[in-house]
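Hi F.,

I've been meaning to write this up properly since the lab meeting, where we talked about keeping a consistent format for the predictions we share between groups. The idea is simple: the sequence comes first, exactly as it goes in, then the structure tokens exactly as they come out, then a line or two of notes. No screenshots and no reformatting. I'm using this chain as the first example so we have something concrete to point to.
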Amino acid sequence: MSLFKTRTVLLVSSILLGGLLVGAVSAEDRQVYSGTPSDERVARCGVTVSEGEIVRIEPFLEGQEDLAGRMELDVTKRSPSGQSQSRQVGNFDNGKLGATIISMERPAEVAIVLSVKDRSGMTLCAMRRSIVLGSIPLKSDPMAV
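Output, unedited:
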């Protein structure tokens, strides 16, 4: 199997698996982080973070039905195992973002940047937020006795 096909299969599998593992996430395990709307056509915006075995980060926009544009979601994850970045970019219409989800394991420190613009490039919503997911163990000093 080619490297491209392997990566595609892994990505699709992780998205499907992430959806299965967090299907039982309760309302208490969901946190809404609000963005800053900068246009009267937007009522609310931001991301919802659902914590279960797998953490899901989902952007949202509640806007007027005639609203359309582009959404960019950047997530940088730092954990004991290393650092990774995920980026989702897509167009939207009807005042709602499509289904966009970034999934990851805990524990991690996560930096989230959301930018939503209309078709003309005017910012509708922006958000920058850092959060800690789970308890991140302190790295031990290998030189300590």
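Notes:
The chain has one domain: 3-133.
Confidence is low (pLDDT under 50) at residues 1-27.

If this format works for you, I'll send the rest the same way.

G.
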